[in-house]
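Please, structure for the following, as tokens.
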Amino acid sequence: LQLVESGGGLVQRGGSLRLSCAASGLQFDYYAIGWFRQAPGKEREGVSCISSGGTTNYADSVKGRFTISRDAAENTVTLQMNSLEPEDTGRYFCATKSTHWRVSEGCESTLPTGFHSWGQGTQVTVSS
């Protein structure tokens, strides 16, 4: 099982980025996928999660600005990030959680607990 993140970069405050998490080596519809981020000197925090059935959850800090979606045909989960703020700066990772086929459960929390097979991450830097 492998996850590869892409789409990070440097943007100004108010800008947008679209992150992708490409998954391979798994039956995609049996996994919830989460996005997490870690800033220097801070703990890793949850950003958003999407269940195997498409139910979503967001951290309060990104609600209304970020949108997570999944494409079963491409085995990809996308995180559209709008109205970016300097506080969004960090390395963004995706990870998986085993669940059942296309269920709504799995993303009751955005905490990293229970997630595995972390990717290498992609850097997001938002300048002020």
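The chain is about 0% helix and 50% strand. The first strand starts at residue 2 and ends at 6.
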